[in-house]
Recover the amino acids of this structure.
């Protein structure tokens, strides 16, 4: 387990990470999402022990990370722009990493290189951006660490490669309990693979929940009420995150379970109502709108 | 509507299997399912429904083994926890049973089809009542049913 408690990091005048507390359980896929500049990369770097926190703690399997080889052995960090030694090729990087990570599986690495059509002798500087990310991922997977931290890694891969990597992750999760932590902007993708999602905004955690829970507790209802009193009666006591009205059609986003919403609406006279599931993207937008991160405000002033 | 089954020739799955290669062992009689990513329902719900359809239609026989969590996750490129959740739900609904160390299998009793028939019937009767209230006659309704090509 990775336990982050009140983690804080300040860069000059910017509080990049502000008292972040999050728990990352083993054998789950943890998704780290956030608005631009929210602090995702900084958090990942603190987990990896690359940056030292100003306040708070990061513990990997109950061990503090910073400058602690025992803890760092269990992590593999892939930066959003993976770094490779100048003039190196895949073989050279493999040599380097297998020297550091005891459990590095060399055979597996070369097998994957072939399957992904990456030339082990070719200079990495000639690889495309996507190929570099693929290589970094393969190095990380074959290092056989317990945790793999991916900073917007998937975002540069083509669809076939993405499916391939996800399959490998599935295999590694089942066979050796790999725990992936993935920071990404691609919410549709994260939605498909994450067990738990942490949403960061301006350095702070807006929410951190099981994806299932998150989706259970926020509902979108499209409805047409017979009369205004019915609307008031239905919404009374419910936490309404957003309400849009087009003519008589209301679209309401509430923080509530599906059962509670249906129970409410059963008691009220409506011409029509429908409870719709929310995508992770819609939840993200709703939650950040609540704290004022509203694109319409930004564009339309 | 669950597109019941296929013996995959889905390109993405094939390339994935090519890449992942070693370690994936399709079992004899493996029946595979497709996930519709555009569907906003949770993936595990889709997995549950696809298997239920396969079982109810008799494509999967009682005591037939389901793919292992690991294999299905690899094949579909999804989180194994999601598959596990689906299997747990299928077991909760008595569609499958699990033998520790061996895997999951389709339930043996014929009650499943009977239960589903009952569920469908109740739903149909509810709608029948509604359509009769809206002015349709039993005669018209019967005619519609006769016209159905099943």
């Amino acid at each position: 387990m990775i336990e982050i408690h009140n983690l804080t990091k300040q860069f000059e005048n910017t509080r990049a990470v502000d008292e972040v507390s999050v728990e990352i359980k083993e054998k789950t896929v943890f998704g780290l999402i956030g608005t631009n500049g929210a602090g995702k990369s900084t958090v990942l770097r603190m987990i990896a022990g690359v940056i030292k926190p100003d306040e708070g703690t990061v513990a990997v399997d109950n061990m503090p990370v910073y400058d602690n080889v025992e803890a760092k052995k269990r992590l593999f960090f892939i930066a959003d722009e993976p770094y490779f030694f100048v003039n190196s090729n895949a073989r050279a990087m493999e040599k380097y990493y297998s020297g550091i990570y005891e459990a590095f599986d060399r055979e597996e690495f070369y097998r994957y290189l072939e399957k992904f059509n990456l030339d082990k002798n070719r200079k990495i500087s000639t690889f495309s951006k996507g190929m570099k990310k693929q290589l970094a991922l393969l190095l990380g997977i074959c290092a056989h660490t317990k945790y793999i931290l991916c900073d917007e890694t998937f975002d540069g891969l083509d669809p076939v490669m993405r499916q391939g990597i996800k399959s490998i992750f599935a295999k590694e999760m089942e066979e050796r309990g790999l725990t992936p932590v993935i920071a990404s902007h691609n919410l549709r993708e994260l939605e498909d693979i994450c067990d738990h999602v942490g949403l960061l905004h301006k350095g702070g955690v807006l929410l951190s929940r099981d994806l299932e829970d998150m989706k259970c507790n926020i509902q979108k209802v499209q409805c047409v009420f017979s009369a205004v009193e019915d609307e008031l009666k239905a919404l009374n006591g419910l936490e309404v995150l957003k309400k849009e009205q087009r003519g008589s059609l209301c679209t309401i986003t509430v923080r509530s379970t599906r059962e509670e919403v249906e129970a409410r609406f059963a008691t009220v006279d409506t011409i029509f109502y429908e409870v719709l599931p929310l995508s992770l993207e819609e939840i993200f937008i709703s939650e950040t709108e609540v704290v004022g991160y509203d694109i319409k405000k930004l564009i339309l002033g | 509507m669950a597109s019941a089954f296929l013996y995959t020739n889905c390109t993405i799955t094939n390339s994935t299997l090519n890449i992942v290669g070693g370690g994936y062992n399709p079992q004899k009689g493996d029946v595979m399912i497709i996930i519709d990513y555009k569907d906003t329902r949770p993936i595990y719900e889709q997995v549950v429904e696809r298997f239920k359809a396969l079982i109810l239609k008799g494509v999967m026989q009682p005591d037939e083994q389901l793919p292992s969590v690991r294999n299905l996750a690899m094949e579909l490129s999804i989180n194994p926890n999601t598959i596990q959740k689906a299997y747990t739900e299928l077991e909760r609904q008595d569609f499958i049973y699990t033998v520790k160390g061996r895997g999951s299998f389709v339930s043996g009793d014929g009650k499943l089809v009977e239960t589903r028939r009952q569920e469908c019937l109740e739903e149909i009767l509810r709608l029948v009542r509604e359509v009769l209230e809206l002015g349709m006659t039993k005669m018209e309704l019967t005619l519609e049913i006769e016209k159905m090509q099943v």
Remarks:
- The radius of gyration of chain A is 23 Å.
